[in-house]
Amino acid sequence: MSRLTAGDEARDVRLEKGSAELDGRTVRFREIRRGGALVALEIGGEVHPVRAVREGDRVFVACDGSTYEMRRGPAIAPGASRRGSAGEHGAGLLAPMPGRVRKTLVRRGERIAKGDVVLILEAMKMEHAIRAPRDGIVTKLDHHDGDLVEAGTVLAEIAADGT
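RE: above sequence
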């Protein structure tokens, strides 16, 4: 059993040949491979391009504009704390996977709203919008366009807006 997280959502998943069990519901799929590498999944007649990168016990999967993190291990009880796909840690916004900062869209001291794009991270040959998990003020922004970052690196810190 593995745990799949994306943003505030988390699901228990069990993968088998041609199907996945998500929280007790079976989803059938067909793998599409090129040169031995998985490049897409066909689900219900629709083709969804995918990219996957393994880092230690985690696998990051990009599909349909979202990035998902899978981890092997016990399921998390409902209501337990979960880390988002762009990874929140305290006030920090963490890189969900290794990549290159392509474009920073905010400045230190700027007021932002939940869902605003903070920066664009290029990883797995795709661009990923890293969004603010809450309203607040950007208090830390140490990376510049072109910087390489590892998974778990603090990309920005957002303090609660006191007004």
